[in-house]
Design goal:
The complex is a heterodimer of chains A (235) and B (204). Chain A is an alpha+beta fold. Chain A folds into 3 domains: 8-56, no CATH class; 65-90; 104-233, Immunoglobulin-like (Sandwich). Chain A has 6 helices and 10 strands. A 5-stranded antiparallel beta sheet of chain A has the order 1-2-4-5-8, covered by helices on one side. In chain A, strands 3-10-9-6-7 form a 5-stranded antiparallel beta sheet, with no helix packed on it. Chain A is globular and about 55 Å long. The two termini of chain A are 21 Å apart. Chain B is mostly helical. Chain B folds into 2 domains: 14-112, Orthogonal Bundle (Rna Polymerase Sigma Factor, Chain: A), CATH 1.10.1740; 115-197, Orthogonal Bundle (Arc Repressor Mutant, subunit A), CATH 1.10.10.10. Chain B has helices at residues 22-30, 34-56, 59-75, 87-110, 116-122, 126-132, 137-147, 151-161, 167-174, 178-196. In chain B, helix 1 (22-30) packs across helix 2, helix 2 (34-56) crosses helix 4 (87-110) and helix 9 packs across helix 10 (178-196). The chains are: A alpha+beta (235), B mainly alpha (204). Chains A and B meet through helix 2, helix 4, helix 5, strand 7 and strand 8 of A and helix 2, helix 3, helix 4, helix 6 and helix 7 of B.
């Protein structure tokens, strides 16, 4: 698939996309298409305004009090667990494999030699001259998953499709890597039913060599505890 | 890089937090502040339940949808990007996606053939919505924009958004080519966008 060719069939899916009416496979393909199509992204923003207004058509129905109690019971419990983890009473245990010994580093090394992953970055397209937009295709260690990073004006956005759901009580955490160890970011995310997500990379990516994504316990981790599921070299 | 997730979160009373804007509250939710989340819940749960019930037409299913959606919001608060719209829009988007999942799971489980009659049951007639929304300017505006569309366009938008149907299912139900359905959706939404003008929330 060419990321420079404007595919009219895919483009015609904009309205169905914002209404949530694309079948799963088409949804994933459209998310991939969005990474490279400025016109579609602009139309999604424009028509998305209408979709965002449609809930006002729903007849008012007060949410049951019992529902709030159920939600807040879970939230309060998880908040306590997160707080306990932060203060060290229940420090999250890194998910080390037997013999790893050093936490995430051997896991990264294992990933590097994994035959299932092509270890190269592909600049999908560049536009707009020196200060333009670059899209990098990332390596994803999940079958049929796709991830790309769009860099523009020193800022980046990660787009994923076809990703597996994060494990129970885990979220995906985005890391940036300059020199040395990965640095945590505030970007914790889950993916939609089709495995899609769009995540803004906090701050500037100037000097950043790679973006990484790992599954981490709720609330995130200060250091990666699992093998990255996404590695996106930026350059 | 500073990471507020590593800052102290904690719970505490929600009362002092009620003066804060949603976006400020989300900064606290990132840090695991349950009281801040409770304020977000209180502000948007009714709209969320209304949307879920409109789509699911069944209280127990709607409750499950809203519970899943708000727990997802709590667990992935850092995914919220204020440059892409309000917290309310984001939260209702999660509810919409969860409701679609629930409707499609139910359709598979029931192995039912989707009929136009069945959908009409899930999407109330306009006389009902007109009566129920008479006091709501926002609803009236979006409803007016929808009603100004040719019926063939408004119908596909309602079936897609509230019925949780894919364009393929709608095409099959209406015995119309998929390309035509896509075109009606796109033309209808574009007209509504023009009708809503500057009053709608603009997502850059």
């Amino acid at each position: 698939m060419s990321f420079e060719r404007h595919d009219e069939d895919v483009h015609a899916n904009v309205a169905a996309y914002v209404l949530g009416a694309l079948p799963e496979e088409e949804h994933a393909a459209f998310v991939e298409h969005l990474a490279s199509c400025v016109a579609c992204r602009e139309e999604v923003c424009s028509l998305g305004v209408v979709a965002a207004a449609l809930p006002a058509l729903a007849p008012p129905q007060p949410a049951p009090g019992e529902l709030k109690r159920r939600v807040m019971d879970t939230v309060d419990r998880e908040a306590r667990e997160q707080e306990a983890a932060r203060t060290g009473r229940q420090r999250p245990v890194p998910a080390r494999r037997a013999g790893d010994g050093l936490g995430w580093r051997p896991a990264f090394a294992g990933l590097a030699v994994a035959a299932v992953i092509a270890v190269f970055a592909v600049v999908l397209f560049t536009s707009g001259g020196g200060g333009g937009t670059k899209v990098f295709r990332a390596q994803v260690s999940a079958p049929r998953a796709f991830a790309s990073v769009t860099v523009s004006g020193g800022h980046a956005q990660l787009t994923v499709a076809g990703m597996p759901q994060s494990p129970p009580n885990h979220v995906y955490e985005l890391w940036i890597k300059r020199a040395g160890e990965p640095e945590p970011t505030d970007a914790l995310f889950t993916v939609s039913r089709t495995g899609a997500a769009t995540v803004g990379v906090p701050g500037s990516v100037q000097g950043v060599k790679e973006l990484l994504v790992t599954a981490e316990p709720l609330g995130g981790s200060p250091h990666p505890t699992r093998t990255p599921i996404i590695i996106a070299p930026l350059g | 890089m500073l990471n507020p997730l590593r800052s102290s979160g904690g719970g505490g009373s929600a009362a002092p937090l009620r003066v804060l804007a949603d976006e400020e509250l989300m900064q606290l939710v990132y840090r695991g502040n349950a009281a801040a989340f409770e304020v977000i819940y209180d502000r948007h749960a009714d709209a969320a339940f209304s949307l879920a019930y409109r789509m699911c037409r069944q209280r127990s299913l709607a409750e499950d949808v809203v519970q899943e959606a708000f727990l997802s919001l709590w667990r992935s608060g850092a995914r919220y990007d204020r440059s892409r719209g309000s917290v309310r829009t984001w939260a209702l988007g999660i509810v919409h996606n969860r409701a679609i999942d629930a409707l499609r799971r139910r359709a598979v489980r029931d192995r039912g053939v989707v009929t136009e009659e069945g959908i009409e049951e899930r999407v109330p007639a306009r006389e009902h919505t007109e009566l129920e929304f008479a006091r709501r300017d926002e609803a009236r505006e979006i409803r007016d924009a929808l009603e100004r569309l040719p019926e063939e366009q408004s119908k596909v938008i309602e079936l897609a958004y509230f019925g949780g149907l894919t364009h393929v299912e709608i095409a099959s139900m209406l015995d119309t080519p998929v390309g035509t359905i896509k075109g009606r959706m796109r033309l209808g939404l574009a007209k509504m966008r023009t009708a809503l003008g500057d009053t709608a929330e603009v997502t850059p």
